[in-house]
Design a protein that fits this description.
The chain is an all-alpha fold. Mean pLDDT is 77; it is low at 50-77. The chain has two domains: 2-124, no CATH class; 130-327, MetI-like fold (Orthogonal Bundle). The two termini are 12 Å apart. The chain has helices spanning 2-28, 34-42, 87-97, 103-115, 129-164, 169-183, 186-197, 221-259, 262-269, 274-292, 294-302, 307-312, 318-327, 331-359, 365-369. The longest helix is centred in the middle third of the chain and has 39 residues, at 221-259. Helices cover 67% and strands 0% of the residues. It contains 15 helices and no strands. Helix 7 (186-197) packs across helix 8 (221-259), helix 8 crosses helix 10 and helix 10 packs antiparallel against helix 14 (331-359).
Length: 370
């Protein structure tokens, strides 16, 4: 098993390199860039998500992992809106952002820095990228972790019961609820929750924004815990709706497939109780396919799935940070987030494979590879 883990870890290196290289190349052809954004700011034309962050004053460090329109040259004609500006000023901007170097040099420097977890500084915020990510990380971890745990804690027992009582009235009406939940977009359900329970038009039971109250630091520790989870109720409920439906149906279908197999009939003929058959024989086989979907569910909740929820509930997490960084061409933040999420995704996939062997010791990845 150690040899298998070592091979998987080594395989992460070319995978990460491939992800970063493809993303870097795509950025070179993307319209706009940090230099053009500063030019637009100087001419009063900047708009969009940039208004949500501190403007172009900041520390424009020369730690750029990439950018459109970069490269050596002594004219400003390749930058839209740069006509009439001092070419020396444009060249100074290129040096500050690192765009005076060839693309391959910038990419190699980025990989070398990222291997040491040195992400440089944000272009448009006077803070290092690592500190910025640490600042936003608690929100994304809270949303991703609790949503995944909640959806699996409910959907697995519910899916098992639906499989055992397949075709019953319980199975029918719970399936209707699950399908409706799957059909409703998470952001739309979030708005409905706000209208109903966050002071929109009816009751004001739950807070509308943030993870903690303003006086959280002055609360006793037990009230801090209560306040934290009280703020999480609405966003976690909105996020868990779609994931809850998917994992419930996946669990049910997986258990139905196993229950109909010959070894289950044999176990029943030996006199084992239904509970012994279900949890002693069926469970570990049926749960393999459910576990296979865990990495995607966790990563989706941790990043992409949280973007709209973070926006609606004013939760300043990594999803919102990444979106704003893309819009504002803050490439150090964009590439750092991509690098970290790629590492997390690969690590979670490895953990998922190792969980297979914990649930079913008969699985041996080294034997299969041999």
């Amino acid at each position: 098993m150690l040899a298998y883990i070592a091979r998987r870890v080594l395989l992460m290196i070319p995978t990460i390199l491939g992800i970063m290289l493809i993303s870097f190349v795509l950025v070179q052809f993307a319209p706009g860039g940090p230099v053009e954004r500063i030019i637009a700011q100087l001419q009063g034309q900047d708009s969009g998500a940039s208004s949500r962050i501190s403007g172009g004053g900041g520390d424009f460090g020369a730690q750029s992992p990439g950018g459109a329109g970069a490269g050596a040259g002594d004219t400003s004609s390749r930058y839209r809106g740069a006509q009439g500006l001092d070419p020396q000023f444009i060249k100074q901007l290129e040096v500050q952002f690192g765009f005076d170097k060839p693309a391959y040099e910038r990419f190699l420097k980025m990989i070398w820095d990222y291997a040491r977890f040195d992400f440089g500084k944000s272009y448009f915020r006077d803070i290092s990228v690592l500190e910025l990510i640490k600042e936003k990380l608690p929100v994304s971890v809270s949303l991703g972790l609790w949503m995944t745990l909640l959806s699996y804690a409910i959907s697995i027992p519910l899916g098992i019961r639906k499989a055992v009582h397949d075709g019953s009235s319980f199975d029918i009406w719970t399936s209707a609820i699950v399908i409706i939940g799957y059909a409703i977009p998470g952001f739309l359900f979030a708005i409905l929750l706000i209208v109903l329970f966050a002071g929109g038009s009816f009751w004001q039971i739950f807070p509308l924004r943030g993870l903690t109250s303003e006086d959280w630091d002055f609360m006793p520790w037990y009230w801090q815990i209560v306040d934290y989870f009280w703020h999480l109720v609405l966003p976690i409920t909105a996020m868990a709706l779609g994931a809850f439906a998917t994992s419930t149906l996946l669990t049910k279908n997986s258990f139905l497939d196993e229950i109909r197999k010959q070894y289950v009939l044999t176990a029943r003929m030996k006199g084992l109780s239904e509970r012994q058959v279900l949890y002693g024989h069926v469970f570990r086989n049926a749960m393999l396919i459910v576990i296979a979907g865990f990495p995607g569910a966790f990563i989706g909740a941790f990043f992409a799935g949280a973007l709209l929820i973070e926006t609606i509930f004013s939760l300043d997490g990594l999803g919102l940070l990444s979106f704003e960084s893309i819009v504002n061409r803050d490439y150090p933040v964009v590439f750092a987030n991509l690098y970290i999420f790629s590492l997390v995704g690969l690590a979670v996939n490895l953990l998922s494979d190792l969980t297979y062997t914990w649930i079913d010791p008969r699985i041996d990845f080294e034997t299969r590879e041999a």
